[in-house]
Amino acid sequence: MLLDSHAKSIEGRFSIGEVAKSTGTTVKTVRYYDEIGLLKPTMHTEGRHRLYTTAEVWRLELILTLRYLNFGIDEIRKIISGEISVSKALDWQIEALSTQQRTLSNMITILQRAKENGIGEDSLHHIHDLVASISANTEDRKKFIFKKIKESMIIDQFPYDWKEPLIQSIDGIFPKNKKITALQSSAWNEMEELLKDSQFHTEFRQSMEDCVNAVQQYSVNQDLWDKKTVEIYSRVIDAVKAQHPPESTAVQEIVEYYASKFAQMLQVPVTPDLLRYFMKVARISGTDRVLRFWELRAILNPDMECALKAKKLLYQGIMWKIAQLEEVQIKKKQAISK
Question: What is the reported pTM?
Answer without folding.
Answer: 0.60
